[in-house]
Amino acid sequence: MPSQRHVPNLERGMKILEHLNLHPAGLTQKELAVQLGYPGNSVFRITMTLLELGYLDRDPATKAFRLTRKLMSVGSASIGEYSMIEKSLEEMRGLRDLTHETVLLGALLPTTAKGVVLEQVPGLHPFKFLFDVGSPVLLHVGAPGKCLLAFQPEKECRDLLGRIDYQVFTSRTHANAASLRKELASVRKLGYALDRGEWMEEMHCIGAPIFDHNRLVVATIWLTGPTSRLPENDFPRLGELVRQACLRVSHSIGYREG
User: Fold this and answer.
1) Chain-centre distance of CA 202, in angstroms?
2) In DSSP terms, which residues pair with 193 in a beta bridge?
3) Which of 27, 45, 67 is the last residue of a domain?
4) In this structure, are residues 188 and 151 in contact, taking their beta carbons and an 8 Å threshold?
5) Integer Cα distance of 10 and 46 in angstroms
6) 93 and 221 both lie in a single domain
7) Number of structural domains found in the chain
8) Distance from C-alpha of 136 to C-alpha of 134, rounded to nearest angstrom
9) What's the CA gap between 220 and 144, in Å, rounded?
10) In sequence order, what E strands does the chain have?
11) Cβ–Cβ contacts within 10 Å for residue 57, how many?
């Protein structure tokens, strides 16, 4: 007998998500209603709500619903965040010891079109940049935001580019989506991202992406320091160091190339 706390539409919504997970090509409202045995009007209300919230995508031609990455990001945050932090810390400390600069770990918050700082390893210099865990990461300035954007699937990237508040901080800040998109192509080619004083003129950053077993970007590691200690002529060497560190973390959480 159902509990008094039983919520039928919530149960149906979860069953719809689970069923769509088994059908990556997508299903229409009619197909969902028939296969799950739910009333058509109930399926209509639930799927449209999930579509508005961003958990489903709908093919404009076939009208089929598919799961989006939003559900995956929620699951990653609740299940895998601490494991990823734990696996990243050794590499972060290694980068800090090699460069003496602060090294940070961050992830995307799709609903806010921003990232968030998950962890940091403070630099060894008397003067260093520090960020509070939980601080927002702007996607249009700095290495971490570019990493989180550049390796997204095209649809998700386009959506995020359209929702960013392009606040200008310095003469090097990307002021619009077109300008930022051009640099993202370079990030994908290099495998790492750079910040040449886009948020603070006296600060440089170098970051790279972390991928999961689905080859999706789930986080980024970056190092940050003053321009005097992170000169542009050292970017290629530092970029490769960070890229290799992130690749090792990616392998540790199931990523495989090929």
Assistant:
1) 26
2) 207
3) 67
4) yes
5) 9
6) yes
7) 2
8) 6
9) 6
10) 56-58, 65-67, 102-109, 114-121, 136-137, 193-196, 203-211, 217-226
11) 17
Residues with Cβ within 8 Å of residue 87, at least 6 apart in sequence: 249, 252, 253
Residues sharing a CB contact under 8 Å with residue 18, sequence separation 6 or more, in sequence order: none
What is the crossing angle of helices 40-53 and 29-36, to 10°?
Answer: 120
| CATH number of the domain that residue 210 is part of | 3.30.450.40
- Tokens representing 172 are 């090097």
Longest Cα pair distance anywhere in the chain, in angstroms?
70
| Statement to judge: residues 135 and 236 lie in one domain | yes
SS3 readout for 39-83: CHHHHHHHHHHHHHHCCEEECCCCCCEEECHHHHHHHHHHHHHHH
Each residue's pLDDT tens digit in the chain (258 positions)?
455 566 788 889 999 998 888 887 889 999 999 999 999 999 999 999 998 888 888 888 899 998 876 665 555 554 455 578 888 999 999 999 999 999 999 999 887 889 989 899 999 999 999 988 888 899 999 999 999 999 999 999 999 999 999 999 999 999 999 999 999 999 999 999 999 999 999 999 999 999 988 899 999 999 999 999 999 999 999 999 999 999 999 999 888 886
Q: Please list the residues that pair with 59 across neighbouring strands.
A: none
